[in-house]
Amino acid sequence: MVQLTEVEDEHFNEKPLPSKNNILLASDDEDEDYTDTESEISNDEEFELETETLYERIAALKDIIPPSARRQVNSSVSTVTSFAKSSLSFSGKALWILSTSAFLLGVPWALAYAEEEQYIQMEREQGMIRGANEMLSPGLAAENKETQPTL
């Protein structure tokens, strides 16, 4: 069985001593300023404005905006993007449902309607042909009516 023991760092056990002017973080050597030697601070000689992209310029401006404002902007942008994604997703699904329903219901109805229109047109043509035949031979049509038995 493994037994864990906590090892405390001596640095965290000591309380910082205030220096002159009651400043906690200032060192005794106030002539030395804190510098980060590993930072990416460029010299004036190495800085080339032409090679810097627009994204790099905007990314460098993020330190100007306070963290609370950045969080607020970030949350509002994420809210808008999530709303846009859900709206596009819903509209895409609704469009899919409407289009498949139109194909499944509309196409058979359109075919049946076209067939019915063909029958109606065919009946009209037959009626016109009968009317034309009666006009061309009026006596023949009257004789046919008299000789036909009625049911």
Automatic annotation (TrEMBL):
GO MF assignments: protein transmembrane transporter activity
Main location: mitochondrion
InterPro entries in the cross-refs: Tom22 (IPR005683)
Endoplasmic reticulum in keyword set: no
Compartment annotation: Mitochondrion outer membrane
Region (Disordered): 1-46
Alphabetized UniProt keyword annotations: Membrane, Mitochondrion, Mitochondrion outer membrane, Protein transport, Receptor, Translocation, Transmembrane, Transmembrane helix, Transport
Keyword Transmembrane helix tagged: yes
Protein's name in the database: Mitochondrial import receptor subunit tom22
